[in-house]
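Researcher: We plan to redesign the surface later, but first we want a full-length starting point. Tokens attached.
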């Protein structure tokens, strides 16, 4: 859901010409980064992003969304549980 919402926002709101998606696994969990070159000032905490933030928080993760004249970056983090 997080990736779908991020891409939907790029398409509907940013006016971006390109979008980069990266998924990395670190020692503490997974990190999804979606970066575009659109209108960063258009970052809004609407229902979609608010819902993503709530779901990630419920899973012990977090979300940051930043934007400026060069575009927008969304970073979602989800912890991974240690193997038993």
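Model: Full-length starting sequence:
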């Amino acid at each position: 859901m997080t990736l779908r919402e991020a891409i939907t926002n790029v398409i509907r709101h940013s006016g971006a010409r390109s979008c980069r998606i990266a998924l990395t696994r670190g020692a503490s969990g997974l990190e999804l980064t979606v970066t575009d070159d659109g209108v960063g000032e258009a970052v809004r905490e609407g229902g979609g992003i608010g819902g993503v933030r709530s779901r990630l928080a419920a899973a012990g993760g977090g979300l940051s969304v930043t934007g400026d004249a060069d575009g927008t970056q969304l970073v979602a983090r989800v912890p991974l549980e240690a193997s038993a």
